[in-house]
Amino acid sequence: MNVGYELVDHTADIGIRARGHTREEVYELAAEGMFSLICDPMTIAGTETVEVEVEAAQPDLLLAAWLNELLYRFEADRVLFESFEVTSLSDTRLRARVSWEALDPARHAVCGGVKAATLHQLSLAPCEGGWEGFVLLDV
Amino acid sequence: MRVTRTGTHTYEIAREGAMRVPGRVYADESLFAQAGHEEALQQVANVATLPGIVTASIAMPDIHWGYGFPIGGVAAMDERDGVVSPGGVGFDINCGVRLVRTGLGVDEVRPKLEPLLHELMRRVPQGTGPRGALDVGERELARLVEQGAPYLEERGLATADDLEHIEEGGAMAGADVSAVSAKAMARGHSQVGSLGAGNHFLEVQVVDEVLDAEAARAFGIAAGQVTVMIHSGSRGFGHQVCTDYLARMAQAAAQAGIELPDRQLACAPLDSAAAREYLAAMACACNFAFANRQMMLHEVRGAFERVFRASWERLGVELVYDVCHNIAKREVHVVDGRERAVRVHRKGATRAFGPGHPDVPPEYRDVGQPVIIPGDMGTESWLLAGTERAMRETFGSTCHGAGRLLSRHAARKVKSGADVRRELGGAGIVVKAASVGSLAEEAPYAYKDVADVVAVVDAVGLSRKVARMRPLGVLKG
């Protein structure tokens, strides 16, 4: 199995497929994939960290809720996220430590907008050698 | 799925399985083939399963595969036993277009196009990062989203005449900020007066052809005249409202025993608390978007004043109309010979009320509501007028734009953003963009030909061609 994320074509939107050895890794990779659409990660130096906690009714909905929470913080707090570490996980709750840097339009190559993680075709399931998640972003 | 061609411009998806009504797609053969993704048609069929849907699940010629509802979809739900679905409005609540006319001709504007675009770029923030032209703070935002564009009139940023030329007068009824989350408020307060990213744009255009002289006269439009078009929505505020209520509606649908073919179609019965609260929050997001586009008009006026050294009143920078294409509205329509109150979901579809309708501004009432159809940045946009036929067939709705043909990734593979800018420059179109990469994604070949889309709604009679505008300069998100 190739661990990582790939961007998946969709007529009007963009999908992210993330594969990891563990479920934690899928959540982390999906967040990396989403932020790669917002800003060139090479321009971010996430020197500060913040704890993020989200809840949802089931693991796949938790994937959308996690990405939507990060989008909210990006816009409301005007910060960019660089690395994501899930520190505790159940079917309905995720806690993570995330590194961030304040948004500086002069220095950060913000390249695109993501409106939200949708529920269309949302999935998170075991696959050979680990876990695979899919989420479609409205961009 | 059984699809049959029922006319030169209509296709029907037969009712089967859980569908409560048939599906109906307006398209000619070529557009239908382009829509041709099985997924988009399946989405038309999925919407037909929602409780209370009346007559048909309808799709316009710019239909393409969305998330949940197809883009280009219209669905009217009975007010008594129907539902409202946040996915049927979309994340960008009240994404819409406003068309502004000027008293300037193309020959006066072309020599000053570069400084004009530069001034617009300075005043109207575009892309994901920057703050909007007006940071109202959270307390004032509460007033703004409950009042809509009239809030800006109080602050001298809108005129009474502007408000008369906005759908709903720029103020959706029923807006209640107590239904809006703290997160939406936090995202929204710094974004009023900002274009955003993706397909949003601000364009300086010239009217290059008038097809209906009487309607054009009523709309104050003439060949050779310079216009400005603004395409934007409710920014992070609306995105957050949709996100919040999708989660809530998923539970509400389960409680109401509604089986969903797609979770993005999550919905709640119109007489439930979840629906009432969503509609109160959606109205706030609609008002945010009306105010957002109004604030950008204020900045456009400032830019024209600075470049042309005269007041905007003297320059005739006036609002023709502002119309939304992502919304769910309570309207009364005649269905099977009797009046029924319905909640019309327009997801990438534009209201197109016909002549005589009381919701059309008095000076336009004889010719029908102005319908504004943005094209892609290299070709053309259209001004249409609403018709009686749209009232009878599509709950007063028509298409909303060109509709995507290529995915963003596929479009990037065709040409680079720099090449796209060079080619548009060669055609005399000045382009300024927050991100050069987005130019490649939004290149003309990524979209269906808007002329084909408009030709279908004109031929069917869902709206009438009035005038065509070509771009002179484009400001991209």
Which term fits the overall shape of chain B?
globular
Largest sheet of chain B: 8 strands, mixed
- Report on the biggest sheet of chain A: 5 strands, antiparallel
| Radius of gyration of chain B, in angstroms, nearest whole number | 21 Å
Number of strands of chain A: 8
Contiguous low-pLDDT stretches of chain B (5 residues minimum) are none
Q: Give the total of beta strands of chain B.
A: 19
Largest interface: A-B, 34 and 48 residues
Mean pLDDT of chain A: 93
Helix amount of chain A, in percent? 25-40%
Structural class of chain B: alpha+beta
How many separate helices of chain B? 17
Q: Percent of residues of chain B in helical segments?
A: 25-40%
Total helical elements of chain A: 2
β-strand percent of chain A reads: 35-45%
Shape of chain A: globular
Plain-language structure description:
Chain A is α+β, with helices and mostly antiparallel strands and 139 residues long. Helix content of chain A is 25%, strand content 42%. Chain A has two helices and eight strands; from the N terminus they run E-E-H-E-H-E-E-E-E-E. In chain A, the strands form two sheets. In chain A, strands 1, 2, 6, 7 and 8 form a five-stranded antiparallel beta sheet that branches. Chain A has a three-stranded antiparallel beta sheet with strand order 3-5-4. In chain A, helix 1 (23-38) packs parallel to helix 2 (59-77). The model of chain A has no long low-confidence stretch (mean pLDDT 93). The longest helix of chain B has 36 residues, at 273-308. Chain B has helices at residues 29-35, 38-47, 106-109, 113-123, 137-147, 150-154, 160-164, 182-188, 213-219, 235-255, 273-308, 312-315, 388-393, 408-414, 417-426, 436-441, 450-460; strands at residues 3-7, 10-13, 23-26, 57-64, 71-78, 83-84, 96-105, 201-210, 225-232, 268-269, 318-324, 326-335, 338-347, 350-351, 370-373, 381-386, 397-398, 430-433, 463-476. In chain B, helix 4 (113-123) crosses helix 11 and helix 8 packs antiparallel against helix 10. Chain B starts with a strand and ends with a strand. The mean pLDDT of chain B is 94. Chain B is built from 17 helices and 19 strands. By secondary structure, chain B is of the alpha+beta class. At the A-B interface, helix 2 of A face helix 8, helix 10 and helix 14 of B.
